[in-house]
Amino acid sequence: MKRRNDGPELVGEGDTDYARYMRTDVLLDLQRRPEEVIHRDELLFQVAHQSAELWLKLAAAELTEAVARINAGEPSPAELLLARATLAVRLITDQLDMLAHLRPADFQAMQPALGNGSGAESPGWRRTQTAGRKLSDAFATFLADRGVDLVTLYSGEPSEPAYRLAEAMVEFDDRVSSWRVRHYKLAIRVGSHGVIGTAGSPSGMLAKLIDYRFFPELWQVRASLAMGRPVGESCLA
Question: pTM for this structure?
Answer without folding.
Answer: 0.86
